[in-house]
Specification:
seven-stranded mixed beta sheet, about 15% strand, globular, binds pyridoxal-5'-phosphate, about 350 residues
Length: about 350
């Protein structure tokens, strides 16, 4: 990039059109009819969440979020005078449709419903076909825009990636994508797909945060995909992550005490674990770290305590390390004193 286009790569500049075109093709390959002009580049999906919240919310508005959700969603849509209306999780359907319906119908009408339809962070769950339909129908009836936060949708191990919700409701969905989980988080590059009429307003909001995305990483990312192909990279990543997911599920099966429940994600990076009654993952974490094992206690993703839950990551360690780590965790859990 520096040799061929160094002068522009090191300057301020408009969005890199070839990257917008590549992203539009990527979205089309998943069944969403997206034009390059609808692709708004952001400095990671987190900035996408922030900009979407700035676009849709006032200081005292309400938004719909999952009861357990990536903390960045709460940070972007929450605030001292804002209300986050929570949707209950359902292990079979990914979310409880009735709970979603009543959340979007709350008064005052929420300004947005944030949905992570595929390989949820932290739950590992994906929405069933029924839940997808229910979300689209309920949001449309209530007149609430959907923020589709989808950094993991392409990391599908057991089936082809699904069409995003955007494909079914392009006027009602702001879609957020990211290169963080499919190439590298340090690129700090993601995208919003929005109706063209909103792009100018998004641009003004983003300019107030960081002017624009790095011209250099936009070009390196586009060149990487042109030279090596994103799909061949994804084929390798999915195959490796699938092995790691399987190693983690097998180890959980073998090493965790009876009464432990865990999600079986079809992709992504995370397994959600619920330990037997009486255990406390916050207390467990302090012990686990001493034996070289780390996880995120479930309460970190919730508005209240959730002492029995934790999120495990399987993408960042090899299968042998995963088996060893879960083995140590299992021993610790088995030895944990239960509160009297
Ligand atoms: C659900 C979800 N949304 C958004 C993000 C932010 O991603 P990015 O690195 O693209 O800012 C993450 C990162 O973990 C995530 O899990």
């Amino acid at each position: 990039v520096l040799a061929e286009d160094g002068e522009r790569a090191l300057q301020y500049g408009p969005p890199f059109a070839p990257l917008q075109a590549t992203i539009a093709r990527l979205m089309q390959s998943r069944g969403a009819d997206v034009s390059p002009d609808q692709v708004f580049l952001v400095t990671g999906a987190q900035q996408g969440l922030h900009v979407a919240a700035r676009l849709l919310m006032d200081f005292d508005s309400a938004a719909v979020v999952d009861e357990f959700v990536f903390t960045g969603v709460r940070q972007a849509f929450g605030g001292p005078d804002r209300t986050l209306v929570e949707v209950k999780w359902d292990p079979t359907h990914g979310l409880d449709s009735r709970s979603f319906e009543s959340a979007v119908s709350a008064a005052p009408t929420p300004r947005a419903a944030v949905v992570i339809p595929e390989f949820h962070n932290p739950l590992g769950a994906s929405l069933s076909e029924d839940a997808r339909r229910a979300v689209l129908d309920a949001a449309s009836r209530a007149g609430v825009p959907i923020i589709e936060d989808d950094p993991y949708g392409l990391l599908s191990f057991d089936r082809p990636p699904r069409a995003p919700l955007l494909a079914a409701a392009p006027d009602r969905v702001l879609y957020l994508g990211s290169f963080s989980k499919i190439i590298a988080p340090s690129l700090r590059l993601g995208w919003i797909v929005a109706p063209e009429a909103l792009i100018d307003r998004l641009r003004v909001l983003k300019e107030s945060v960081d002017l624009e995305c790095s011209a250099f990483t936009q070009r390196t990312t586009a060149l990487y995909m042109e030279e090596f192909g994103l799909e061949s990279h994804l084929v390798r990543v999915r195959a490796e992550y699938r092995i790691r997911r399987d190693a983690m599920l097998a180890a959980l099966e073998a090493d965790m005490p009876t009464g432990t429940r865990f999600s079986r994600p079809e992709g992504g990076m995370f397994v959600w674990v619920e330990l037997p009654e009486g255990l406390d993952t916050l207390r467990l974490l302090a012990e686990a770290v001493k034996v070289g094992v780390a996880f995120v206690p479930g309460g970190a993703f919730a508005s209240g305590p959730s002492p029995r839950t934790m999120r495990l990551n399987f993408s960042n360690a090899d299968p042998g390390t995963i088996a060893e780590g879960i083995g140590r965790l299992g021993q610790l859990v088995a030895g944990q004193p239960l509160p009297s």
